[in-house]
Each structure stands twice: as structure tokens, then as C-alpha cells.
Design a protein that fits this description.
- Chains A, B, C, D: Pathway: Metabolic intermediate biosynthesis; chorismate biosynthesis; chorismate from D-erythrose 4-phosphate and phosphoenolpyruvate: step 7/7.
- Chains A, B, C, D: It holds the Pfam family Chorismate_synt.
- The structure is a homotetramer.
- By secondary structure, the first copy, chain A, is of the alpha+beta class.
- Chain A has one domain: Chorismate synthase, AroC fold (4-Layer Sandwich).
- Chain A is built from nine helices and 17 strands.
- The longest helix of chain A is centred in the C-terminal third of the chain and has 26 residues.
- The model of chain A has no long low-confidence stretch (mean pLDDT about 95).
- Chains in contact: A-B, A-C, A-D, B-C, B-D, C-D.
- At the A-B interface, strand 1, helix 3, helix 6, strand 12 and helix 7 of A face strand 1, helix 3, helix 6, strand 12 and helix 7 of B.
């Protein structure tokens, strides 16, 4: 609950962006997995701030430090403790935020719920938390090397990549800073984000994720359907407003005779409106889904807001924030997906006593 | 996990449509709630088959029978056991389904996962399960009479009700069999569903749900954000392919300066793109979200499929299925929402020791 | 939590002795297990009231009725719903209990916690609940036929069976109504219980349980040690006041050089003070433990007590209660042990991805 | 599960004694608690090695470092991350243990379960883990300053403190290194442990714990009875073999008319064989229980054992181990008890919606 994710393969996290460190405990990881630490750091680097001109210019090396659960380079089956020291928590002046509630942030709700709030850098609501998830996901990925998980930017504002994912070359995702596997669309997105940034504004976008080579049978019926677990995971990411898989919202306008996925003799299907999941359980086809991100709430423009006493005040956004979170969200989406898949492989194994 | 929903207010369920009964255990319900049994049955009646010409013509009275946890008409705080006897499990011939996998059903995935499958009426994958949820939700609603939960049909196929929910009269939802609070749109929807039904086909749709009068502070940060819990709940409903709240997928195309909800002096906001939830925690504004339903997979048309040995066979849909599930899904969406809200009121109370 | 037991193989229960039925949901049971229904009923018969002269003379057939999760005699992997109809909830006069708190019962604590209390037959606190567990355990046993679980009466009052369990013939447990595999001790116990009963009094006792043929490796480290799970399970049984495994409280008086279990070449140990569990994980040796039961609180003697207004009143125990619960507790101890073992076999399997 | 303890107030831990650090995440701690860090460190000091002549002479400062969840000295309601750096993990030669299984340790079971084992200092099975629990318990204690939790040494070997706890002065517990509130018994215990130590042997003992000023109503019925939660917690401590509360195993020899706790007019009881818990729920009387610890398995004597290939080998215990763990176990027992109580106060609050 709350700060814990997963059923058998779990991650429990802590951390505020302006405290000494963030980190967590990965529990239930099978023993004997030889970890590639460079690959783990590489995932963090894909998420880290300052990596390109279209993300926040804040600098954090985001170096993960493992404290337990690994012996001679392999997982032991014991819980894996890790942390990422915060190196950028400069003694910035937060007095302007302390008593004011930034619009569309969690300042107001946290203040009301907890009374005592860490206002520096958003405290626990900081998206810095997602670096912890990337660590968990990077470990998870190494437990299931046979499964391919690729996320990419499919929309920024009104710029949409409409090409079916089957026609995309996922090896191009990392070839541009937008993380869009279509060079032309990527350029448009980069230009648009740059423009938005100049205006001191921000913009939302959509991430598409494709999971391939998934065995048949993952997912628990009724309340732990595989797509429901994936949906909950994605809706946990800061700024996410929507999730759809397979035919998604468009499927709602279709008829059954159009939408049904007809079988091939080997159990695969001719179409895949189901998105690789039927009755909550994977059918061996590609799993694909979309995640909608709203624009970042911090804009470098003057806004009206209230302080804790209900006075209307003027506020000017400060700080080095992302004009668009989508490019940095790619490894986060993949990380959560990887943890869901490992967890369900373990659950499925347990069921087959 | 699996057949259990919720954290503190939970429901654990069982049942196949063609077995003796479905039912469940509601656990954690606070003591002393005087139950209105007629209201509970009324919710079941809103979901039951045979209620109108645009739903399945199967007849089931769906009478709930409470077996424990209630004394002198009030909840005791003990677990509430209930069941709904299946009266319609006629000794129908299922031999045509036994060894065949219906397209876009869960026949194939269940067979692969469990080996031994109850093929009658879909077994555990039957949407009849949702009657259990309606019972849980009806009890939950009575624990929080001050909170108003209204769901309605906002799309059927390409017929969309685009009126902002604030301009709708929720008292009209039950005035028509489409459960759309706009008489004209409702008529269009009813006509379209009737037409689709004649063709032996089915169609999807969208449900919108609005939760009003929610206290500030509900929801747990990080992995149990209020909207993530709602999303997971909705994605558990059979046929659901997508979930969005507040600005949803449209919000992904907006800029921060457009999307930010500016505060009024009392903590309420001038706009509500946030959908009543900020940082995963309710802010006191209306919570609203949309749920996309794909078309029902059973069509009364000849389809090609495979049998368990991988032979391509012809199959003709039989049975009395819904041409569109959306009108019957309304009470299900409300029920799950009610359980999530009660659960989070309890969680929030626990946090304020 | 609360009314749910287990991690992956779980049982969630409901029921009061004087309501319409008790029952529950067994969730996570692997698919394809061919159930022997007679064996399940037989376990219930070992627990049922009225079975001998030294137990309560109340008559309940305790017939279990399965409602879901079983198809053609085999488990399907879906949740198993069951109930046991209460046939003995006669319209007895409970007015003497309604406003009074029976000493050493849960009347006072339930009243204070829940406010609204079902006072008939103890409501939810009735040990009738344990019939549900026996159903769960009987199903669990059939999932692990290779594992032998035998519980027996090892003490009644001050009559102790001190023979090491290795020298006992477990096939004699069911040969007498005390369920003590030593005919002479059994007779002493029966005589003593009969005597106590005549006095309108009750007496406590101890159950020993031995689990044999357990694979090496069951149990989760740190907070789900196998013995901690067994201990919690046993401490859930009404009237239990203590749990010890292996050397138990006597081990606390030993030295390390006495207590250490020296290995044989095959990994087995020469002694077994560890009780088959080391570091929380089974080592393949017999698991054995003891469970202490206090005397039943209902005595057919006049006692002083208080009513809800704090008045001191006289109260005379009524009803047909057990003079000693231990003989009927045997199948309950075995049932819980069986569920713990199955659960941990599943957990262990999940860990070995 | 596994490395997580608690329902709402939880602790999730990691760490091996010879890795870089141990630590954990305290989740669900209410916001606004002003932490006394000196008091937290003081609890760790009560547990730390090297504190007296009758415990291990290993030196570890055991300084806790908080990394998150605390702002301006108060808890924020966010998860609290902490760690304790291992300063004593010297590059000792463990080659003698690497391939051998020490008798009555977890070497064999861990090797069999996980395959890949951290053999240094026992890896994850090290009782160093309990320092994490002491941190969690120290925070929990500060959330409930009104509740008094006192544990003390009541037996070492065959030296028993039989005085009823009501006649003891708990302020004397810390007055001697045995942590026994009876000066004479303490001296006997200290002498005996010193003697045992000289022999290179170890000895077990018993801890008694008393929890006072507990509100009525804590505990969940059926499977989360307050004493079952306490029992599971205590059985999680390394070396524990038994748990009893109230009358415990002695109660099993009593009759109902002796054992029943007769009420006073105010709801308190004249005797307290129930141990402050009736039907799993606290009744406001003192909660008291006993925990049995076996002797430490590491003895500085030659023992026969096996290596991983099943060869019989001679082994000589090395290292600086405790001759008796009981004095250092006192703060651990209190810590777990404190976490159980806070957790149940929160659960109880949630139930009273």
C-alpha cells in the first residue's frame, strides 16, 4: 500500500528531492541473477535531468548505490536495498512556496492531508521518486531478458505519431532526444518543445509501450487482471491522466464483428485489438498500451494563487523544470511494465503447483 | 490479490454464471450502518439482465441473500457474507464451446493458464461476477450517504454526449434505458443499439462517472493514488479498454498555462482539469472520469475460430447476449467507485492517528 | 487482514453461529485438483459438535455446500465459494446475555469496539467459524497428498502424554474420543473431562502437531518465517494461549552445545531441536509444535459479572458447551497447518523463477 | 510479505551484517510526530554489540541515519528511509564457512532455497537485521507516548524470575546488564552467562513483556487477533522458539472456574489470565506475554558438521558471538510490540468511520 508496488516482486520506496537521498527496497527478486550494473545505470541516465536541451537543466548524476541483497555480483534472493544520493539539493530559497499553494501541484492536498509538509522541491510529491522505480525496473528487466519492452513518445501536444507500432523501428527510439522512433516527427516534437520552453510554458504528451515475447497465461482473473495492474502502475506516474490498451477508447466506437481477433491455427490472432490480453490474461500476442501525460504544472509565467490563509497572491514559477516530461518518462514506463511482468511471471508460477 | 478488491473495506468474490451461486465476503465494513435492503436490491435491478429491450433477454432475478455480518438490520463490523443464487443455469448444450475458443473471449487464455476450465457460460470469466460488486458497492454507498456518485452513458459507438457534465441533470439518468441523461442522445443510442442487435452484432461505448462532495485528503501517495485505485477498479470490469480522469487524453495536448487549475480563496479551483485529484489526493472538487468499453465479443454471426487441437472451425454465436454492455455497466462503475471511496476514507482516517 | 488467512492460497470467511450460514472463499487454489468430497466432509465430522460424550451435545450436521470454483469434480483455479448452513440456530432466549458481559468471553471487547453486537451465540466470536477453516484445510490437504500432517491431544489439564512423538502410532489418534494416540492416557483424559463436565466446569489442554515429508526450503525469511506463520495461524484459534515449536520453552533452558542439531551426511540431522525449521525455512526434518488451549469460559456455575451499565449481576452459564475443546481442535490445527504448507509451497515456487 | 512487517504502520527492511549497510523504510507513520532522535539512538544502544561483558564483544556504533520522511524534526507522513552503516565488516576470512553448513544455523536451508548464498556473517540471516526493527519500534513508541511497553529478562537457563510482574519495579530493568528488574536474580544470571561464556558455550532464556495503558478495542477478529499479531512478531526474532500470553501454557492445565477473569464494575477484571486480550481484542488490562529464546548456535567448541558435498568435517566456531542473546533482545521485543500496537491503533481508527 502507499509506497509499495507489486505482489511478489515488490519495491518499497522513500525519498524527497531535497533530502539527503532517495531509495528503496526491492523485495522478492529471485536469487542468482547476475546483475549488469552498467545497464542499470544506463536506465537511470535515460531518466536523469540535464540530459538534453528539451528537459530540465538541473544536474543530478543519479548514481545508484546498492547496499544489500547482492553477493559476488548476483542477487541472493534477499531484499535489495539501494539509494541515490541527492547532490543537487542546494540551499535554495523556498520561502515563496512555503506558504503558497502552486496551482495544479499537490501542495494544497498534501497540506490538507498531512498538516506538516516538506515544501522543498515538492517533498514526497517530487517526480524524482521515479528514479527509484527505474532502479527496480532495471533489475526486473534483467530477470526476464527474453521479454522485450519498448516505450516511446507517440504524441507531444498535437503532434502525433500515428504509424502503427509494427511499422516502427524501436532501435531508433534512443536516436533522438524526443525518444520518438520517427526522425521527422521527432524533429517536430523537439522544435515544438523548444518553442514552448521559450514561452515559459509546458506541454503534455503520450507514451506508447509495447511488450513483446510475453508468455501466455500471465495475469490474475477478476481484480488483478494484467492490464489492470499495468494501468494502475502507469496511473502512479506523476502527471498521468489516462491509460488505454489494445483498441482503447477507439475500441468503444467499434462493433464486435470488427473488433474480434480471429485466431490462427497456432493460437495467435490475425488482428490484435485485444492488446495481447484477453480476460485479464496474456495471450502471447504483443501487449501494447498508451499513457497520457498532462503538461507540467510549473510554468515560468505569473499566475494567481492562494496562500495558506486563503489570500489571493501572485506567484511566478521558478526553477529548472521540464517543458515536457514525456521524453524522460520513457524509461519510467518501461520500468513499471518490467516489474509488473516479473511479478506476474512469479504469480503464475506459484499457481502451477 | 486476484479475487479480492480493496485495502480495508474489501470484497472477496466467487462464482460462475452456470454454477449454483455467485457471492462473496465484504470485509472491513464499519459497524452500525443501518442497511436499506431495498436500495441494495435496486442497484442489482439496475444491472440485471432482461431489464429492457436493448440488453440481453436472459432472465435472472438476481436476488441477494445475506448470510452473515448483519444483526437487527445493521452491520456488526464482522464480515458480511452474501450470495446470489443462479436460477438461469439451464442444462443448455455447451458442446459447441467446450473444445473451441471463441474469438476475443478468455477461453483460450484460461485454457492455457489453468488447463482445467469451466466452459459453461464462460465460467469464472462471466460478467455475472459484477453482480457481486454491485452488492459490495451498494453497501459501501450506504456507509457514505453524503457522497454522490453518478455514472451515465456518454457514448455508444460514434454517438457521443459532449455536454459538460455540469450541465446535465443526473436525475434523468434512470429516465431512459440507455442511462443517458440527455433524452435526445438517449434515443439515438437506443435506436443504434437496436439496429446493431438486429444485425446480430454488438457495439462498445463509454461511461462517464462523477463523484461529488468528496472530502479533501483521500488517496495515498505514490502507488495508491486515488485515481490509480479508481483506474485499476474500472479496468477490472469485463470489456474495459481504457480509463481517463480529469482532462484525460485531451489534457496531453494542452499547455501548462491552459491546464493549470487556478485557486479560489476557499481552496476550490476555477477550472477542474485535475479531475478533483492532485498528487493522487482528492482536493474537494468533483472527481470525474471516463471508462471505455469494447463491443461484446459474442456476435450472432458466423466466425472462424480454432478448437483445442488447433483446427480451424466455423462457429456461430448463440445465446442471449448484450448488444451493448454500457447501460448495464452504469451501476457497476458506481459500485466500484463507492468501494474505492469508502476504502480511502478509512485509510485516511487511520493516517490521522 | 482480519477475516483473511494466507498469502497466495487464502481463505476469507464469514459467519455467526446463529445466522443463516457460515462459509467462505478459498482463493488461489491450484487448478486441476480432483477433490475427494467425502474426505472433506470427514474432516468436518471430526470437528462437529455432538460427536462424543466429552464434547458439546449440540447437534449440527455441518454439511459443506460448494458453490463455485469446482467443475467436473476438479478445482478450476477460480475462487472456491462454500457455505455450511446453520441448522441449530433455535430461537433460544438470549435476553440474559444481551446486556451482560460473560467473563473471559469477547462480549465486552466486541461491545466496546463495534458498538452494535450480535450477541446470539457469541456472534462472530463463535468457534463455529473454525468449521470454515476445516473446509479450507481439507482442500489444502488434497493439494499436497505427499505431506503428512498429524495432530493429537498431548495434555488435558495435568494429564500429559510425555512419550516422544516418534514413538507414537498416529493411526491410533482416531481410535478414541480424546484423540490421544496412547490408549491409557486417552482413558485418563476421557475420565477427567467427564468428571469436569459433571461439575459444570471446563478444562484446558495441549495439542501437538507433527508435519512430515516437508520439502526443504519452505518459508520466507525475516517476517514470514515458516514457524511465525504457523504460530500466527495457531494463535488465531479460539482459546489458544501459547505456541512453541521444536525445543520450545524447554529449549530456553538448554545450552548451545546440547541444542545444536548435528548433521548427517545427507543433510538430515541427528537430533531435531530445531523442529524442522532453521532460519525460518524448513530443513526437511519433521516439523512439530505445541498449542496451548485455555479452558472454555462458559461454565455451568453461577458467576458474578457486569451488565452494560456497569451493574454487578449474577449469571448462570447455559447452553451445551464443550467441557474441553482439545479433542475437537485436532482437525482445526491440522487444517491451518495444511493451508500454511500449501501457501508456502506456492510462495517457494514463485521465488524459483 | 517476507521483509515487510505490519499492516498500516509498516517496516520493510534490507541488509546483511557484512555488506555496506542495513536499513529500511517505515511506511504509514502518521504526520506531525516530533521525533526525539536521542531516544531512537538510545534504543539502538540498548541493542548494540559490545555494550557489556555478557554480550558479544564485536564493536558497532549502530548509528542510524535518516534519509527521508522527516522535515524540520517532524514526520511528514511520507515514508521514512533510514540506514545503519556497517562499520565492522572486516575482511575476515570466511573460507571455513563458505562451503560448510554450521549446525542449527540457516546455512543449509538458505543454500537449498536460494542456491546463491551470502555466507559472510550469516548474510541475510544475521540478527543484525533486528537493529532495523529497533529503529522502527523507536519511531512507533514516539507515536504512542501514553502506552508503556516494558520487556525484561525473566529466565536465563534454569534461573527463573518467578515474581509476578506486578511486583517488579520496571525502572530497575536498565540498572543491570542482564536487564532483569530483580538485582539478585540479575547477578545470578550474569554469573551464569559469564560461566557459560568461559566454556565457549551459549545458553537460552526467556523475555517477558508487559504493555500497559492500552486502549480497549485494539485487534482484528479472526485472523488478526492482537495476540496472534504479537506472536507472529515475536516468532520473527532470530532464535525464538515459543510465545505465550496471559496464562499461556499453564492456563492449559487450569479449569474454567479458576481461569475466568471476573469483571469489576468499571469493565476491568479482578484477575488477568486473559493477558489483556479477549477474543483477540484488547480489554484495557495489561497485555503480557513471554518469549522463549534458544541458545545461540555458534559455540566456540569443536563440532562435527557437513560441507556442501555431504562430507563430514570438523568445525570450530569462531567470532565474537553472544553467550546469551536475551539481554540484547529486550529492546527488540519492545520495538516489535510498539509497532504492533501503533498499527492496531491505526486499524481500529479506520474501522470507526
Amino acid at each position: 500500500m502507499a509506497n509499495k508496488f507489486g505482489n511478489l516482486f515488490t519495491i518499497t520506496t522513500f525519498g524527497e528531492s531535497h533530502g539527503p537521498a532517495i531509495g528503496g527496497v526491492i523485495d522478492g527478486c529471485p536469487a542468482g541473477i547476475e546483475l549488469d550494473f552498467e545497464a542499470i545505470q544506463n536506465e537511470l541516465d535515460r531518466r536523469k535531468p540535464g540530459q538534453s536541451k528539451i528537459v530540465t537543466q538541473r544536474k543530478e548524476p543519479d548514481t545508484v548505490e546498492f547496499m544489500a541483497g547482492i553477493f559476488e555480483g548476483k542477487t541472493t534472493g534477499a531484499s535489495i536495498g539501494f539509494r541515490i544520493v541527492n547532490t543537487n539539493q542546494k540551499s535554495k530559497d523556498y520561502s515563496h512556496i512555503k506558504d503558497q499553494y502552486r496551482p495544479s501541484h499537490a501542495d494544497y492536498t498534501y497540506s490538507q492531508k498531512y498538516g506538516h509538509r516538506d515544501y522543498k522541491g515538492g517533498g514526497r510529491t517530487s517526480a524524482r521518486e521515479t528514479a527509484n522505480w527505474v532502479v527496480g525496473g532495471a533489475v526486473a528487466k534483467q530477470a526476464i531478458p527474453e521479454i522485450k519492452i519498448n516505450a516511446f513518445t507517440s504524441s507531444v501536444g498535437n503532434i502525433h505519431l500515428d504509424t502503427p507500432y509494427q511499422e516502427l523501428d524501436f532501435s531508433l527510439i534512443e536516436s533522438n532526444i524526443a525518444r520518438c522512433p520517427d526522425a521527422k516527427k521527432a524533429e517536430e516534437m523537439i522544435d515544438y518543445i523548444s518553442e514552448i520552453k521559450k514561452q515559459g510554458d509546458t506541454v503534455g504528451g503520450v507514451v506508447t509501450c509495447v511488450i513483446q515475447n510475453v508468455p501466455v497465461g500471465l495475469g490474475e482473473p477478476i481484480f488483478d487482471k494484467l492490464h489492470a495492474q499495468l494501468g494502475k502502475a502507469m496511473l502512479s506516474i506523476n502527471a498521468v491522466k489516462g491509460f488505454e490498451f489494445g483498441s482503447g477508447f477507439e475500441g468503444a466506437a467499434m462493433t464486435g464483428s470488427q473488433h474480434n481477433d480471429i485466431f490462427n491455427a497456432d493460437g495467435s490472432t490475425k488482428t490484435n485489438y485485444s492488446g495481447g490480453i484477453q480476460g485479464g490474461i496474456s495471450n502471447g500476442m504483443d501487449i501494447y498500451f498508451k499513457v497520457a501525460f498532462k503538461p507540467v504544472a510549473t510554468v515560468i509565467q505569473e499566475q494567481e494563487t492562494i496562500d495558506k490563509d486563503g489570500n489571493i497572491v501572485k506567484m511566478m514559477g521558478k526553477g529548472r523544470h521540464d517543458p515536457c516530461v514525456v521524453p524522460r518518462a520513457i524509461p519510467i514506463v518501461e520500468a513499471l511494465a518490467a516489474m509488473v511482468i516479473v511479478d506476474n511471471i512469479m504469480l503464475d508460477k506459484a499457481r502451477r503447483i
